[in-house]
């Protein structure tokens, strides 16, 4: 990696870090935190889906695992939340590896892979709703205890900075991946798996590395979600909403580019926020508008309108 | 595990078959669209909901029996699907698969919430006198609307099968699925074929909706309940395979019914997904092996 | 000890014997040709040697050790590289990146891999297209990319599946020395080719596959004179042109 | 029969054809030669309506067909056997052939099918095999057969000898000659320069998006420039 | 004299997504209350200030609720009422607590809502524990009064928060009170089919079915039971979506008749209840518990504003906490209001039964407007 590779990321981090200085409105900080958490989940998807071409519809499996591990370990066993957060990331990557191993070894590609991930996420959802240690259907509440040592902050600004730092780390990791041999091989597998194998790419290993890293990032997003909203249930953790969020942002912003997920997440959530304002007497109209805008964004992609947003390959 | 008397198990199997056929019909639309557009149609559930509302309106506003409503709704929904593909999905996706995904997603958001705005969130049903009728088959009581659904699903599948195998349109649909340029060069209007496929898929939903309505209900999110099952069926039956979708539907219906009987409906869902995962992992071309 | 040995390899697809009981050797440092009618099983044989397909029976030996059905990437790492008849570019990537994927096999650092890729590109005549997406190349460009990717893995044995098809005679003439130079740099070449002009020019020995069986082996001149080969493969026109006006 | 005037076309920002004019009259074989990347395939794609030209005009049988859809072009009898075959891999051989007459000559389907099988007996042996698993050469036969199913008035062949064994190449040229003998006009794009010129009535040589050379095949063949650039002599 | 500045009140309901139906009816209740307050002279202690509704769509998710609370905070609301689902109430009351913004949960039954020590959070209605306790007590009374016809029970529940919690409790408590639980059957929401559950019930042949599901699923279940000619001695619902819904009564009178429910319900004896119901039905909507509950919760805030004498959050919180039996503008069948740690101790669920075309309250006696029909006539 060269300075040119890293600079834009650091710049982004620095500019974004100024936000809490200028903005104290909870609305905006809350919006920014949620968007950044989704950026992280989306960046996770982007590693596997954007760079690796393995479209997953079940990143909820990783998000939820990260979230539940973070919550369950501290609620049930009193482990420090920072530790449980790391444990969540680790567990999510293990889940990623296992799902990856099972599907890639049996040669699943394309929509088949997408569907198997979807199914895994659903299995986790049904299970987490039924077993007692996740709180079952009643969900899991992380007790309110706003101390920095407890990964809960009196002021949202700190939480924001922490999430931002993690997003910057994810961006740097993605950039490093992009510039590495693994990254090149991953992209090659995306473009043509047979051809990649012919030139010595161990496709299975490459895809497993990707899904593990991918799951770790999305798991981190899950942990942050749990720590921020302090409440989890099976639909939040393993529901399809997060699988969709995770893939929507990178595809809109540019799959397989470092900044794609960030751009996509910002666009999507700005749209969502903007339409939310339009809520009138009749519920649903705002979401209809959101849906129409989504289609329009696909039709007239912002990355085409603003070529410099595209992010260098 | 609990032991049920054989007539109960038998009736559970029969119920599974009856319900499964209609699942198969929903899956049929999905498998067809998947086979040609290579993409999972996220709007499938919302379109099913739309069809159910249409059938409901036909009943509530025009007094049309849901079964009779099949006749006008099939062409209407064919046209709707055709138009949606031609005017929305096609242009907006600009030929990229991942874009089609997003567009269908956007479409589902639009449809679902438009229905919420129009029909409100209430759960609606039709009241027809045969809804409660049963057919006594030996010791079993079979719900009349389901028996009808079963029969019609088979007829639709047979018609589609013949259409795809025996007619030029069918061959064109299959040809476009894999080789667009080649198809254009033999004079197939690729955009038209896409739209026809989408239209057929949507028309299948109209039939399914009319079959479901007498014994079911409709609210703005009801379609989603069927989509996940439909995915399972599509995989089980082999993506793009018409007989596979129907057979897959029957299998899933029975599996769901039996696992529901023995494990409870909640965990019974787990049964379906586990089967789903196993099939994907060990026989990804589907149980009824459509050609890869 | 022979470099590559193919021992009684058979491959069945349903009722069709695509390859049946084929055996031959490839000598180290040679350019060996594999010719035969369409559908004879040549590509299938390549797929078997390079680990993409597992033969129904038979063995492939590489420097004395059995390598049958080892995965392709392992074989590539051991120095066995192939090109595809139906070219398989990384369509969305530039020519440089395409070739670099191959180069990464033996170079961990990006800069090294890119440098090697550019060097290989020069070797196969793609320097001018380095930044073009592979999808925008013409047939011959793609064939060259195919060759470049394989070369960038720095193989010991190169399996070329009809890399000359689609090139015009003067381009064929241009690429013949490239292949020869590859061999001279120490790479053994086994090539499937229908362009007899090149086969006659390049190959030291040729094996002819017809309906899955080896029906003739020998020097190019010997093989084109074999009646069975003329009958099954060359046709009388080509045969007479080759033996008459052979400017090998 | 086919008149092309000042055709300009390209992809995105690049221009590939820079004003191409060409004629094919009824019953004639015209060879289009050119080095790789000269734009031959692009020209075919424009003629078939798959690529929209930026300017210029194409007339077929007296009618302006510029800007028509591929289906409309095809319906008029201008049939292309494309480079890279573009057969339907998931359909079997018979279905592939039948789709050849999707828009034209449907009535004569059975008859033409027999004709194709007679021309390529190998295809008859493989009727029920999925086309994607055919060998390279078999696929080429299938592509040509599919084109013939539409009873073309003008057949464009883009590198039909690609990947065929010498025997089959010979047979293919024989076949082209035969089709020509039956009165079919053919536009042949080939790398097999010598054999194409033997066969063709007239030839065009495309270079950098424009014709550098055009005329009766015999004359073109003798052109020293051509000999140097394309025949490797 | 100039009109005093309007007081902004946040109304949070999920009107899109999975919970849209409940959210709609909740909003309706809040609107009716606000209209009524404004029409009758506003908040008198504040010079007749009008209440202005700031509506937020929680989009059926906790983060949606949180985002809306943030927006309401930015708009300067004096309190937030609503949430409907427990997860939404939990997350959004917490967001509100950052700003010491009073939060009155309308329905959310999870007891965690009022046990976290949040000073700003109140619940006027009963929580899960008290509802299920009432359900059990009343069931025993009902059965005893009828001469103990019911001995065996099958519990059917949706597998979410309401249903699962209820089922667990029933499983533990019913045996202590002399009932045998033959089986506990859970189903997902949405459910596609109830034939299996019907089959199992037929095989088990229980005296009593205790279902706890959302509207659509219960309708499906009861219709399937009807179709399969399964007729127990009674259906006794707990926190059920349908048995307290007039749509069910209207559309499927045969399946609905005599179904009992333990649920939130308005006090049928208060004249205001009937008046409100007429207003709702005049809008072509059905009469559901969400409406009176939100109506009452808004009235609670209004009452607190009157007593606080200022649109000041801290004062409003204190005032709500100090609410007592004098607060009578609500229409719930509760005794004198008294808050302990944010929970109204008087909040309670009642037993209802569908009788003919109407939903009647059959327990507790002081609110009842009909006699229970149990066991069902053969
Ligand atoms: N996966 C498969 N399934 C069924 N048949 C196959 C499969 N792959 C190849 N074949 C058949 O095996 C035979 C040999 O094919 P192969 O591709 O090896 O021929 P080839 O010698 O390379 O021919 P060409 O010179 O035309 O490329 C052909 O008849 C082909 O149809
Ligand atoms: N889809 C495309 N996008 C961008 N550029 C393209 C595309 N297809 C072809 N080109 C470019 O257009 C030019 C002409 O290509 P074309 O395929 O027409 O050549 P050709 O004469 O048929 O070559 P060949 O003999 O190799 O088939 C080439 O420079 C090629 O890179
Ligand atoms: Mg081959
Ligand atoms: Mg070409």
Automatic annotation (TrEMBL), chain A:
This is Branched-chain amino acid ABC transporter permease. It comes from the Bacteria. Pfam families: BPD_transp_2. Keywords: Cell membrane, Membrane, Transmembrane, Transmembrane helix. It is found in: Cell membrane. It comes from Falsiroseomonas frigidaquae. It is a multi-pass membrane protein. Coiled coil: none annotated. The lineage of its organism: Bacteria, Pseudomonadati, Pseudomonadota, Alphaproteobacteria, Acetobacterales. The chain crosses the membrane at residues 7-25, 60-79, 85-104, 111-138, 158-177, 210-231, 251-272, 284-302.
TrEMBL record, chain B:
InterPro entries: ABC_transp_permease, BCAA_transport_permease. The keyword Translocase does not apply. It holds the Pfam family BPD_transp_2. It is found in: Cell membrane. The chain crosses the membrane at residues 12-36, 42-62, 69-88, 100-119, 140-164, 193-213, 225-255, 261-282. The keyword Transmembrane applies. It comes from the Bacteria. Keywords: Amino-acid transport, Cell membrane, Membrane, Transmembrane, Transmembrane helix, Transport. It is a multi-pass membrane protein. Belongs to the binding-protein-dependent transport system permease family. LivHM subfamily. This is Branched-chain amino acid ABC transporter permease. The lineage of its organism: Bacteria, Pseudomonadati, Pseudomonadota, Alphaproteobacteria, Acetobacterales.
From TrEMBL, chain C:
Gene3D superfamilies: P-loop containing nucleotide triphosphate hydrolases. SMART domains: AAA (SM00382). Residues 4-236 form the ABC transporter domain. Keywords: ATP-binding, Nucleotide-binding, Transport. The keyword DNA-binding does not apply. Transmembrane segments: none annotated. It comes from the Bacteria. It holds the Pfam family BCA_ABC_TP_C. The keyword ATP-binding applies. InterPro entries: AAA+_ATPase, ABC_AA/LPS_Transport, ABC_transporter-like_ATP-bd, BCA_ABC_TP_C, P-loop_NTPase. GO terms for molecular function: ATP binding. SUPFAM superfamilies: P-loop containing nucleoside triphosphate hydrolases. This is ABC transporter ATP-binding protein. The lineage of its organism: Bacteria, Pseudomonadati, Pseudomonadota, Alphaproteobacteria, Acetobacterales.
TrEMBL record, chain D:
Belongs to the ABC transporter superfamily. This is ABC transporter ATP-binding protein. Pfam families: ABC_tran. Residues 2-233 form the ABC transporter domain. SMART domains: AAA. Keywords: Amino-acid transport, ATP-binding, Nucleotide-binding, Transport. GO terms for molecular function: ATP binding.
């Amino acid at each position: 990696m060269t300075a040119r590779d890293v600079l834009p990321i650091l710049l982004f981090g620095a500019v974004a870090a100024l936000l809490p200085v200028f903005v104290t409105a909870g609305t905006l900080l809350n919006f920014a935190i949620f968007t950044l958490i989704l950026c992280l989940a989306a960046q996770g998807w982007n590693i596997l889906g954007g760079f690796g071409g393995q479209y997953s519809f079940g990143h909820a499996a990783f998000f939820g695992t990260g979230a539940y591990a973070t919550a369950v370990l501290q609620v049930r066993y009193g482990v420090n939340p920072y530790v449980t957060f790391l444990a969540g990331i680790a567990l999510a990557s293990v889940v990623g590896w296992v799902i990856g191993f099972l599907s890639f070894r049996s040669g699943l590609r394309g929509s088949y892979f997408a569907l198997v991930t979807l199914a895994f996420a659903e299995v986790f959802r049904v299970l987490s709703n039924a077993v007692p240690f996740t709180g079952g259907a009643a969900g899991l509440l992380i007790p309110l205890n706003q101390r920095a040592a407890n990964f809960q902050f009196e002021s949202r600004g700190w939480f924001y900075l922490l999430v931002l730092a993690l997003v910057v780390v994810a961006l740097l990791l993605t950039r490093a991946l992009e510039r590495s041999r693994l990254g090149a091989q991953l992209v090659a597998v995306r473009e043509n798996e047979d051809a990649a194998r012919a030139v010595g790419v161990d496709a299975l290993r490459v895809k497993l590395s990707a899904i593990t890293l991918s799951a770790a990032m999305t798991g981190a997003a899950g942990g942050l979600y749990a720590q921020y909203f302090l409440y989890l249930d099976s639909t939040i953790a393993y529901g399809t909403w997060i699988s969709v969020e995770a893939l929507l942002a990178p595809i809109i912003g540019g799959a397989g580019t470092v900044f794609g997920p960030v751009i996509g997440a910002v666009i999507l959530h700005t749209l969502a926020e903007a339409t939310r304002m339009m809520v009138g007497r009749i519920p649903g109209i705002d979401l209809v508008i959101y849906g129409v805008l989504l289609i329009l964004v696909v039709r007239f992609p912002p990355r085409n309108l603003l070529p410099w947003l595209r992010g260098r390959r | 595990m609990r032991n049920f008397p054989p007539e109960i198990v038998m009736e559970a199997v029969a119920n599974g078959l009856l319900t499964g056929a209609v699942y198969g019909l929903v899956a049929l639309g999905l498998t067809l669209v998947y086979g040609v557009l290579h993409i999972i149609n996220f709007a499938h559930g919302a379109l099913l909901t739309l069809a159910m509302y249409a059938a409901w309106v036909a009943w509530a506003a025009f007094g049309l029996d849901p079964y009779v409503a099949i006749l006008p709704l099939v062409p209407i929904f064919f046209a709707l699907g055709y138009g949606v593909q031609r005017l929305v999905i096609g242009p907006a996706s600009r030929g990229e698969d991942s874009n089609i995904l997003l567009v269908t997603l956007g479409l589902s958001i639009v449809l679902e919430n438009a229905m919420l705005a129009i029909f409100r969130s209430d759960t609606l049903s039709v009241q027809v006198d045969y809804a409660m009728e049963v057919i006594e088959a030996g010791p079993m009581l079979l719900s009349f609307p389901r028996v009808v659904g079963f029969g019609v699903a088979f007829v639709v599948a047979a018609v589609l099968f013949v259409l795809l195998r025996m007619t030029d349109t069918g061959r064109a649909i299959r040809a476009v699925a894999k080789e667009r340029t080649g198809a254009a060069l033999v004079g197939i209007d690729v955009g038209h074929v896409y739209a026809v496929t989408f239209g057929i898929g949507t028309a299948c939903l109209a039939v399914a909706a009319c079959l479901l309505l007498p014994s079911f209900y409709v609210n703005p999110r009801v379609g989603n309940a069927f989509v996940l099952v439909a995915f399972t069926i599509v995989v089980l039956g082999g993506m793009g395979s018409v007989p596979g979708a129907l057979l897959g539907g029957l299998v899933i219906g029975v599996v769901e019914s039996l696992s529901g009987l023995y494990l409870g409906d909640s965990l019974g869902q787990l049964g379906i997904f586990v089967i789903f995962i196993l099939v994907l992992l060990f026989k990804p071309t589907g149980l009824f092996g459509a050609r890869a | 000890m022979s470099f590559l040995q193919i021992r009684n390899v058979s491959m069945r697809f349903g009722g069709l014997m695509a390859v049946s009981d084929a055996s031959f050797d490839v000598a180290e440092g040679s350019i060996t040709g594999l010719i035969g009618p369409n559908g004879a099983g040549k590509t299938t044989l390549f797929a078997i040697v390079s680990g993409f397909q597992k033969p129904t029976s038979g063995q492939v030996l590489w420097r004395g050790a059995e390598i049958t059905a080892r995965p392709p990437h392992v074989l590539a790492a051991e120095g066995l590289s192939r090109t595809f008849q139906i070219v398989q570019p990384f369509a969305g990537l530039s020519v440089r990146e395409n070739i670099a994927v191959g180069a990464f096999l033996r170079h961990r650092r990006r800069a090294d891999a890119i440098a090697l890729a550019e060097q290989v590109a020069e070797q196969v005549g793609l320097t001018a297209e380095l930044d073009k997406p592979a999808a925008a190349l013409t047939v011959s460009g793609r064939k060259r990319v195919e060759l470049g990717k394989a070369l960038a893995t720095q193989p010991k044995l190169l399996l070329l599946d009809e890399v000359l098809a689609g090139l015009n005679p003067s381009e064929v003439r241009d690429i013949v020395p490239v292949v020869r130079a590859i061999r001279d740099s120490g790479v053994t070449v086994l090539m499937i080719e229908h362009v007899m002009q090149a086969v006659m020019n390049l190959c030291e020995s040729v094996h002819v596959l017809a309906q899955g069986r080896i029906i003739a082996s020998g020097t190019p001149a010997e093989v084109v004179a074999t009646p069975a080969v003329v009958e099954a493969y060359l046709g009388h026109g080509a045969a007479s042109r080759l033996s008459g006006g052979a400017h090998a | 029969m086919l008149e092309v005037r000042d055709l300009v076309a390209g992809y995105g920002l690049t221009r590939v054809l820079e004003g191409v004019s060409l004629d094919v009259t009824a019953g004639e074989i015209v060879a289009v030669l050119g080095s790789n990347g000269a734009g031959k395939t692009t020209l075919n794609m424009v003629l078939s309506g798959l690529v929209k030209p930026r300017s210029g005009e194409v007339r077929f049988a007296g009618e302006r067909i510029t800007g028509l859809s591929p289906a409309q072009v095809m319906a008029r009898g201008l049939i292309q056997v494309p480079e890279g075959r573009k057969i339907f891999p998931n359909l079997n051989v018979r279905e592939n052939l039948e789709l050849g007459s999707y828009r034209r000559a449907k009535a004569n389907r059975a008859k033409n099918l027999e004709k194709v099988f007679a021309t390529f007996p190998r295809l008859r042996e493989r009727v029920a095999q999925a086309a994607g698993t055919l060998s390279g050469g078999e696929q080429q036969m299938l592509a040509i057969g599919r084109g013939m199913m539409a009873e073309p008035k003008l057949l464009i062949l883009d590198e039909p000898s690609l990947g065929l064994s010498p025997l089959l190449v010979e047979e293919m040229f024989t076949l082209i000659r035969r089709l020509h003998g039956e009165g079919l006009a053919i536009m042949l794009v080939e790398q097999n320069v010598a054999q194409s010129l033997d066969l063709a009535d007239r030839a065009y040589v495309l270079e950098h998006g424009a014709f550098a050379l055009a005329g009766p095949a015999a004359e073109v063949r003798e052109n020293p420039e051509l000999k140097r650039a394309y025949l490797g002599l | 004299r100039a009109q005093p500045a309007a007081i902004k009140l946040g109304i949070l309901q999920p009107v899109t997504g999975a919970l849209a139906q409940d959210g709609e009816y909740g909003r309706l209740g809040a609107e009716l209350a606000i209209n009524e307050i404004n029409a009758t002279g506003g908040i008198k202690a504040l010079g007749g200030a009008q209440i202005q509704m700031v509506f937020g769509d929680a989009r059926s998710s906790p983060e949606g609720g949180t985002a809306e609370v943030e927006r309401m905070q930015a708009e300067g609301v004096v309190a937030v009422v609503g949430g409907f689902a427990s997860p939404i109430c939990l997350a959004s009351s917490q967001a509100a607590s950052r700003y010491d913004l009073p939060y009155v949960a309308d329905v959310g039954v999870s007891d965690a809502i009022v046990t976290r020590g949040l000073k700003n959070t109140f619940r006027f209605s009963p929580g899960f524990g008290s509802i299920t306790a009432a359900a059990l007590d009343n069931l025993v009374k009902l059965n005893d009064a009828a001469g103990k016809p019911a001995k065996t029970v099958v519990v059917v529940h949706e597998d979410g928060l309401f249903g699962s919690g209820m089922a667990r409790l029933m499983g533990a408590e019913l045996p202590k009170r002399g009932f045998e639980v033959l089986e506990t059957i859970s189903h997902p929401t949405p459910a596609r089919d109830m034939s299996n559950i019907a089959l199992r019930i037929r095989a088990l042949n229980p005296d009593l079915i205790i279902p706890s599901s959302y509207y659509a699923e219960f309708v499906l279940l009861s219709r399937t039971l009807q179709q399969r000619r399964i007729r127990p001695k009674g259906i006794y619902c707990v926190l059920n979506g349908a048995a307290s819904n007039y749509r069910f009564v209207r559309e499927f009178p045969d399946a609905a008749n005599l179904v009992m429910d333990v649920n939130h319900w308005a006090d049928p004896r208060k004249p205001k209840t009937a008046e409100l119901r007429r207003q709702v039905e005049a809008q072509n909507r059905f009469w559901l518990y969400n409406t009176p509950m939100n109506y009452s919760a808004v009235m609670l805030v209004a009452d607190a504003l009157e007593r606080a004498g200022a649109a000041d959050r801290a004062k409003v919180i204190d005032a709500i906490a100090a609410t007592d039996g004098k607060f009578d503008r609500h229409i719930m069948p509760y005794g004198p209001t008294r808050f302990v740690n944010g929970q109204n101790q008087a909040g309670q669920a009642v037993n209802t039964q569908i009788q003919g075309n109407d939903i009647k309250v059959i327990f507790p006696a002081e609110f009842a407007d009909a006699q229970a029909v149990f066991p069902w006539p053969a």
